[in-house]
Amino acid sequence: MAGQLGVLNALDVAKTQWYHFTAIVIAGMGFFTDAYDLFCISLVTKLLGRLYYTEPGAPKPGSLPPRVQASVTGVALCGTLAGQLFFGWLGDKLGRKRVYGLTLVLMVVCSLASGFSFGSTPKGVLTTLCFFRFWLGFGIGGDYPLSATIMSEYANKKTRGAFIAAVFAMQGFGILAGGVVALIVAYAYDQKYKLPTYEQDPQGSIVPSFDYVWRIVLMFGALPAAITYYWRMKMPETARYTALVAKDAKQAASDMSKVLQVELEAEVEKVKKLAEEESHRYGLFSKEFLRRHGLHLVGTTTTWFLLDKAFYSQNLFQKDIFSAIGWIPPAQEMNAIHEVYKIARAQTLIALCSTVPGYWFTVFLIDHMGRFAIQLMGFFFMTVFMFALAIPYDHWTKKANRIGFVVIYSLTFFFANSGPNSTTLVVPAEIFPARLRSTCHGISAAAGKAGAIVGAFGFLYAAQSKDPSKTDAGYSTGIGIKNSLIMLGVINLFGMVFTLLVPESKGKSLEELSGENDGSEDPKPATTVPV
């Protein structure tokens, strides 16, 4: 195929227009919902333990047994991994738009169903909850490759990185919203029920109606997804899929003429020539793909795996780290609703001061600094600050130094979100051919969720105290918070190393990066930035 299709060039050089912002909001609300649903569970696991596992006369309120805690926390991540692989593949086979609505329906239905988890025993309720959260994760998983690919294929090449990063930045608002919703619900219940602490009155520190608290928090995640469903279904298929994969030049030109509000020629002959060359195209499992994109796929999968292993460990177990340093009081010194409130307040503060600003730092700078530089910088500072927390850990546990711990801990979130947590999503949506783009993004994202699962399950056990008398009920001894933080620092260090395999895609068209500008698909390949 000689040169780029006119409709694709028009998208690449288009000035920033209203449809760009519309696409950011429509795709971004998926990530808002994703983050809300994945992270809100950490706000209510302590409450679930009190409700269903408190033993009469015990000196401390109940907590979820290790396997139950791991299942409740990690099952949605397992579903997400499966959904990323399945919907990523399906997005290349059926089209981005046709699959896009299905993921949203799954998220809405399963968010609501999670709140209606039923059973006559604690085991029954939590088994039902895990079932619905797996399928919730499955829908969330599909949103990763589809939203990133759609935004990538709609954007112009000058600000493409910022637009994809802005879609992902909605995840920060989702995490923040989870904390705010939990704060509001906890405050409302606290005003209605003035209860003593567990130490003062174990039975009186919780009432049966608190069972509604966690259900309301989980169900709220359905609202933003439901609101955007109509507009998501109104979006036309991306021109890159229609022209390069479906080979429908007229439809691509017609759709983008409406979007860009200009007249575009349907280059039927060019697309026919492209279709004739289809037999020479390489597949995902071919030696040719390995030669052209093998190292790129290794780079995107390994860096996302390492990032999520550290990021999800930090995010899902903030409450345990804050409890360990004394920022959240011991469970017996609070009633059930105060515990929810204090955990939500701590996580909301972290999100507001570091998580959300970090995402938007990337949005504003990614097309100036480039993906490679921002990712390397993020991993570097995550490593530095994690070691700064871990090595003098005993210093940070003293009451006078707790604020310093929280500040440095917040900086690790800032640099995660202003670096690899954004770029690991952006780059796979840019560097692979259109017919494999969604699939390769799904593979990269699934590798990330594999890291998140390892982090979520592993940190739960590893962070237990080395002193048997200080471990949580049902857990064996671990390596302690200090050594766990050192381990996370080492993981971030490896993230820096594997970033060297990730190509720089700033300022290039998608076809230039993937090689779809000519019939051989072999322009100058996207090369790794020299260091």
From TrEMBL:
The entry's cellular-component GO terms read: membrane
Extract the ranges annotated as region (Disordered). Answer: 510-531
User: Which positions, given as ranges, span the membrane?
Assistant: 21-48, 68-87, 99-118, 162-189, 212-231, 348-366, 372-391, 403-422, 442-463, 484-502
Major facilitator superfamily (MFS) profile domain location, by residue? 23-507
Where, per UniProt, does this protein localize? Membrane
Q: Name one GO biological process term.
A: cellular response to nutrient levels
Coiled-coil residue spans? none
Q: Name one GO molecular function term.
A: phosphate transmembrane transporter activity
Q: Which UniProt keywords apply?
A: Membrane, Phosphate transport, Symport, Transmembrane, Transmembrane helix, Transport
Which Pfam family, any one, appears in the UniProt record? Sugar_tr
Similarity comment: family membership: Belongs to the major facilitator superfamily. Phosphate:H(+) symporter (TC 2.A.1.9) family.
Record protein name field: Phosphate transporter
Question: What lineage does the source organism belong to?
Answer: Eukaryota, Viridiplantae, Streptophyta, Embryophyta, Tracheophyta
